[in-house]
From TrEMBL:
This is D-galactonate transporter. PANTHER family: FI19708P1-RELATED, SOLUTE CARRIER FAMILY 17. NCBIfam families: 2A0114. It is found in: Cell membrane. InterPro entries: MFS, MFS_dom, MFS_Na/Anion_cotransporter, MFS_trans_sf, Sugar_P_transporter. It is a multi-pass membrane protein. Belongs to the major facilitator superfamily. Phthalate permease family. Residues 11-426 form the Major facilitator superfamily (MFS) profile domain.
């Protein structure tokens, strides 16, 4: 068969890039929000509804998106998803030309549509990794695409800030929308099934398949419509329920950092907005490093003969323990100590963010898209609950002390899930 090719790493590089665009498009509204609010004369309540539009649609569209992946395959659905969310992002640039009420309605609708269009993306990422990578490399591959969420903040936030300052807020949506649409061509050229990829040879496909890769996943598509009975069957698995609840808890850490963390730095730690903006990037960098290291460490354990359960659970538990160090911020006064502890906590969150690797390890072969969608639905419910809960805590107590305890407690629950609920990690079989 000749020397084995390594096209799978090109595939995961494409997943990394498209996921970075995905997260950057999510962040466009938060960075452009103040300028939009001034131009459209929107108060905080109105902007709150606009900010929430993405999250509600993203959660609601997960299960339909998962069915579409299982029915039509990852390549086609992801290409359509990328085209749609980029188009809706591009169209957002024009809402300022509408009358006040019309602009608000259009802005909410477009953000809702972006959320719905992005829904299949992470289940598709997990599905593609399950098809292209043997179990011994799946942790690293999943960590690479998952770490793009941190890279997006570091790379695109300064770019978008410069665009807003130089050309106005609509320019952000034009540039990001155009970037996404142009990347569709890259996607179609480089993403194929393992057995049909023009650059992958038989030796690589055989290596992937021998290691547990689902190389024929998209050759056996389901022709029936979405059936919620399969969701019930997935939820009857104690292992999967433990994984889903843990992902909700892990994502609580993520949503704290991307929503309330800058506010915490300004209100509780009395930093200027400018300084808080730079400081907020530090945990993102640490999360990126931790995310890649967690995946590499997990796969190294697997290659050294440890079980899949040990290889996945060890970095998850260690990472969540590190994340809990954020609670120590309640007992320090210096800004440098706070920055260090928060960076350590987000590094730990990155190390422990192996949920997508676990999903790729456990999803039933014929329902990989649906399982990933259910996993992502549960995980992203925290995007709705976390900002609201922390808001009530801060308003009721006048400080962030109990808010940090709230977030840290979720890391502890994630540990309990993996050690006491999940049990042996294995692929679920649904007859």
């Amino acid at each position: 068969m000749g020397e084995r090719t390594n096209v799978r790493w090109v595939v995961v590089a494409v997943l990394f890039l498209v996921t970075a665009i995905n997260y950057a498009d999510r962040a466009t509204i938060s960075l452009a929000g103040p300028a939009i609010a001034r131009q459209l004369r929107l108060d905080a309540v109105a902007m709150g509804y606009v900010f929430s539009a993405f999250g509600w649609a993203y959660v609601l569209a997960q299960l339909p998106g998962g069915w579409l992946l299982d029915r039509y395959g990852s390549k086609r659905v992801y290409a359509a998803s990328l085209t749609l969310w980029s188009t809706f992002t591009l169209l957002t640039a024009g809402v300022g030309a509408l009358a006040s009420l019309g602009a608000v309605v259009a802005l909410f609708a477009l953000r809702f549509l972006v959320g719905a269009a992005e829904a299949p993306s992470f289940p598709a990422n997990s599905r593609i990794v399950a098809a292209w990578f043997p179990a011994s490399e799946r942790g690293t591959a999943s960590a690479i695409f998952n770490s793009a969420q941190y890279a997006a903040t570091v790379v695109f936030a300064p770019l978008m800030g410069w665009l807003i300052a130089s050309f106005g807020w609509p320019s952000v949506f034009v540039v990001m929308g155009a970037l996404g649409l142009s990347f569709v061509l890259v996607w179609k050229a480089l993403i194929h099934d393992p057995k049909t990829h023009p650059l992958a040879n038989a030796a690589e496909v055989a290596y992937i398949e021998a290691g547990g890769g689902l190389v024929s996943m998209d050759q056996a598509r389901r022709d029936d419509g979405p059936d919620l009975r399969y969701v019930g069957r997935l939820l009857r698995s104690r292992m999967l329920v433990g994984v889903y609840v843990a992902q909700y808890c892990i994502n609580t850490l993520t949503y704290f950092f991307i929503t309330w963390f800058p506010v915490y730095l300004v209100r509780e730690r009395h930093m200027t907005i400018l300084k808080a903006g730079f400081v907020a990037a530090i945990p993102a960098v640490c999360g990126f490093v931790g995310g890649v290291l967690g995946g590499v460490f997990s796969d190294a354990l697997l290659k050294r003969g440890h079980s899949l359960s040990v290889a996945r659970k060890t970095p998850i538990v260690a990472g969540m323990l590190l994340s809990m160090t954020m609670v120590a911020c309640n007992y320090v006064s210096s800004q440098s100590a706070v920055i260090f502890l928060m960076a350590l906590a987000f590094f730990g969150k990155g190390v422990g963010a192996l949920g997508w690797a676990v999903n790729a390890d456990t999803a039933p072969r014929q329902f990989a898209g649906l399982s990933g969608a259910l996993f992502n639905t549960c995980g992203n419910l925290s995007g709705i609950t976390t900002p609201i809960a922390i808001g009530y805590i801060v308003q009721g107590t006048g400080s962030f002390a109990w808010a940090l305890v709230y977030v840290g407690a979720h890391a502890l629950v994630a540990i309990v899930c993996y050690l006491g609920v999940v049990g042996r990690i294995h692929r679920v079989t649904l007859a």
